[in-house]
Design goal:
Urease, subunit C, domain 1, 6-stranded mixed β-sheet, alpha/beta
């Protein structure tokens, strides 16, 4: 397979005219030269934090606090999930996943409620799709063993120690929410030596130093934080100290569109378009241990092709800024997974 156009190549997303050569699902060459296409070729997105299960409850719970919405075990989300028909749950998740795939997301990291059964339902929802899932079970060690790791809710002193030990023994991924509604759970989360943290809205100087000292990656979800009213993460300060990735969080709160998340982050925080594109691609891939997120030889060919001559993108002077701040689902010509 040969894809021509302006290619956002490598870790710096340098725009080069030419072609990407793909063999057996792998990028084997990025060749500069005249292209017969106005297309923009971009790494497919990696959504680094999702809760797909609450696809059954989109836009439910307007006006509720964060705890009322999503806190286990009796937040609105959890009550609705317990009451949901299993077939309906699988179908609504599958529809969300089809949208994510068609909207340029090549992989995602899912915090999956419902124990072992929750892991099984998303496995069913993924049937027939090419999007790659890194599923982190919740609530029980059995769920971790059935999944790719464990996704913990916010820690308080002494919580999740046994789950962290079991996950480490299994050599699987351990992620944990921290600093979403206040700072009280950040140090306990860091004490668990997680593979990554999620949110960090209320990170203080001490926490930033600890994150930097341990090189702990952070996934931020600014649209979700805005909707729930908890504040906004210090994205620029985090990016100065560690790897930062983007996630869309709960489907009940936000469309899982990485275009929307990128535009929001780029226009709200003091970070460059290239930094934001990295947060939406290679940063999430590296947190999840995936070999995608960049266009360079040897990487998985998970690619997004945008129509650079669409009414929306025609005339763009800076391809990276155009992708991050302006592009949308309507500009997509192809998603290659």
């Amino acid at each position: 397979m040969i894809i021509e156009g302006t290619i956002l190549r490598g870790r710096e997303f340098d725009p080069v005219e030419g072609q990407v050569v793909v063999e057996d699902g792998t990028v084997v060459a990025v060749e500069e030269g005249e292209a017969r296409s106005d297309d923009l070729v971009v790494p497919a997105f990696v959504n680094a934090h999702t809760h797909i299960g609450d696809s059954i409850a989109k836009e439910a719970g307007a006006g509720l606090t964060l705890d009322e919405l999503v806190a286990p075990p009796d937040g609105l989300k959890h009550r609705l999930l317990r009451a949901a028909d299993r077939a309906d749950l699988v179908e609504t998740m599958a529809r969300t996943l089809r949208f994510m795939e068609s909207a340029g997301t090549g992989a995602f990291v899912e915090f999956r409620e419902g124990g072992v059964e929750g892991v099984r339902t998303i496995d069913e929802a993924l049937a027939g799709l090419e999007i790659e899932a890194v599923v982190l079970g919740r609530e029980t060690v059995d769920a971790m063993e059935a999944a790719d790791g464990f996704g913990a809710s916010g820690a308080r002193d002494g919580e999740f120690g046994s789950e962290r030990t079991a996950t480490r023994t299994a050599d699987k991924l351990f992620g944990i929410h921290a600093g979403e509604r206040d700072a009280a759970d950040i140090n306990p989360a860091l004490d668990l030596d997680p593979d990554f943290l999620v949110h960090m809205v209320h990170a203080e100087d001490l926490h930033l130093r600890r994150v930097a000292d341990r090189s702990v990656p952070v996934v931020v979800c600014p649209r979700s934080n805005l909707v729930t009213g908890v504040g906004l993460p210090p994205v620029a300060e985090l990016a100065d100290r560690t790897t930062v990735a983007l996630g869309t969080d709960n489907v009940m709160l936000n469309s899982p569109s990485m275009f929307r998340e990128m535009e929001f982050a780029a226009k709200l925080f003091d970070v460059s378009a290239r930094e934001v594109l990295a947060m939406a691609t290679v940063a999430g891939a590296e947190i999840a241990g995936l070999d995608c997120g960049l266009i360079e030889p040897g990487r998985e060919a998970r690619l997004l092709v945008l129509d650079g001559d669409s009414d929306n993108l025609a005339g763009a002077r800076d391809p990276v800024r155009a992708v991050v701040r302006r592009a949308g689902v309507a500009d997509i010509k192809d998603v290659i997974l």
